[in-house]
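Subject: Interface between my chains keeps coming out wrong

I've been trying for a while to get a sensible model of this assembly. When I model each chain on its own everything looks fine, but I need the whole thing in one frame so I can look at the contacts. Pasting all components below, labels as-is. Any help appreciated, I'm running out of ideas.
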Amino acid sequence: DIQMTQSPSSLSASVGDRVTFTCRASQSISSYLNWYQHKPGKAPKLLIYGASILHSGVPSRFSGSGSGTNFTLTISRLQPEDFATYLCQQSYSSPPWTFGQGTKVEIK
Amino acid sequence: EVQLVESGGGLVQPGGSLRLSCAASGFTFSNYDMHWVRQATGKGLEWVSAFGTSGDTHYPGSVKGRFTVSRENAKNSLYLQMNSLTAGDTAVYYCARGETIQILYSHYYYMDVWGKGTTVTVSS
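Reply #2:
Try treating it as a single job with all components included. I did that and got this:
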């Protein structure tokens, strides 16, 4: 199975900051990488698929990049509603669909 | 409105069984793969099962032989029968819709609609 590793596990930031975090696959997954946002008690929300394609309705301050084994998610100007946990998921070799352990973005 | 609503969670003793349900609305349920994904406290998301539109089912090794996914398209419902439960199965269980989109020569697969989850606690 392909293992997904995210870093950092958490970060503190302020509203307006630019934040970037990474996701690494244990083997090449081309661009078959999805990003989700998850808030406690809420349904996870798809942000990006195909490593860089913004899902419908997702604000343009979110962007993704990367291919192969290394991927990044960037939030250009952090908004109050962006404090959440962000998870990556590979869909290159599935099943199983494997997720990273998440990066929690907290208020500084 | 496209929506998934899970139910059936609760407290169960180790070795016990539980059946989760997921009610879908706002889309043609039979046209989509459906998944169960769980999250234990402090952990990331873990995919638990899938039921494809062709009737194919899939499980990770951690639940294979203990969990059974099923669906009733006429009722727009997905189910997860969980047997021989252990403390390691304690988690919030989410229902999710799988979707494939073709862009040029690539077929991207993602889970684009999720429920809010139902909590399963396995404890004596």
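Reply #3:
Confirming on my end. The interface with chain B takes residues 1, 30-32, 34, 36, 38, 41-46, 49-50, 53, 55, 87, 89, 91, 94-102 of chain A (CB under 8 Å).
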